[in-house]
Amino acid sequence: MEMSIKSRNEFIVGLKRFAVFVMTLAIVFVMTDISGIKASAAASGKVAVPKLASEKTYESTYTHPYNKQIDTIVLHWGKTSGANRYQVYVKGGKYKNWTRYCTTTNNSVTVKKLSRATGYSFKVRAVNKNNVYSSFSPVQTIHTARMNYDKAGWEAMCRIVYHEVGRINDNMWDKPIVYVADCVVNRYVSAKYCNDPLWTPFYKNYNNIQSIIYQSGGFMSDYGLSRDGCNYKNVADKCKIAVWGAVYGTTSYKGIKNDYNVYYWCNRSYYTNSNKIAYSFKIPWGYFSIWRTYWG
Q1: 234 in Cβ contact with 172 (< 8 Å)
Q2: In this structure, are strands 95-104 and 140-143 parallel, antiparallel, or unpaired?
Q3: One-character DSSP codes across the chain
């Protein structure tokens, strides 16, 4: 029995309505799914960028642990919201390109087996439990030291520099302070790490920099420095900054470049042409009690 024209038209209209309903339902499902995906992605992507803590220099083992300064750097950063772990990357020395050094759940890491007197760049990023990564932190560059030392060694270097510039804080002594620091450090580095034929035999019987300064006869004793008012508590900050620059191979005090090829200083009031002498100056005490000049 054939369908009447009226019935057929009604069937077609009903079919179209059904199709519209199905399509509307499908769109609702799709939009709901997309919204869910977006919500899920938003939830899983909430991981903040970590920030590396600033390097701490002298009078601290926060970044540079004692007697490990030539090959070890300690990094710190604040824990970040949503982080499950952190990835630390390094570049410098044997790491020619950015290399993942480690993944850790801590907010600090000790980077070991580095090269002496070398600059290293670091960056860190956070990862959450859904393996969503934060952006990298700003890059931080830190240098390993030219030599190892402990607290007593650091204080000995600063004390002898302070003494040798006459405990003077006037700006005219800025360059001598840097160059004396260079001389003190250069001697030890040449003997300990460079097998220098001049300094190695002379210092071979001393285990650390403070023993050389206090006991070798080439500098001054602990007693003598104390007698002259050169206890560490009296050392000017500019001397500490200059010693830091000499130890870490970084120009640190007023942009005065360190000289890593000088080993002596003297108090002559006349010019000396030895390239091994950092400078010559007339010390501002004694019968003249005046500043003369120096050659750097």
Answers
A1: no
A2: unpaired
A3: -PPPHHHHHHHHHHHHHHHHHHHHHHHHHHHHHHHHHHHHHHHHT--PPP-BPPP--TT--SSS-TT-TTT-EEEEB---TT-SEEEEEEEETTEEEEEEEEEESSSEEEE-SPPTT-EEEEEEEEE-TT-PBPPPPPPEEEEPPSS---HHHHHHHHHHHHHHTTT--SGGGHHHHHHHHHHHHHHHHHHHTS--TTHHHHHTT-SSHHHHHHHSSSS--HHHHHHTT--GGG--HHHHHHHHHHHHT---STTPPP-TT--EEE--SS----TTEEEE---S-TTT-S------
Q: What is the bridge-based pairing of β-strands 140-143 and 73-76? A: unpaired
Lowest mean pLDDT among 26-40, 216-230, 245-259: 26-40
Mean pLDDT (the chain, rounded): 82
pTM for this predicted structure: 0.77
Task: Single out the residue of 246, 245, 240 nearest to residue 185, CA to CA.
Answer: 246
Once rounded to an integer, what is the mean pLDDT over residues 20-40? Answer: 46
**Which tens digit of pLDDT belongs to each residue from 151-202?**
999 999 999 999 988 777 667 778 888 888 998 999 999 999 999 888 899 8
Q: Does the pLDDT of residue 251 top 60, yes or no?
A: yes
| Residue 38 token pair | 């977006």
Alpha-carbon separation of residue 286 from 21, 257, 290, 291 (angstroms): 106, 30, 8, 11
Say how many residues make up the chain.
296
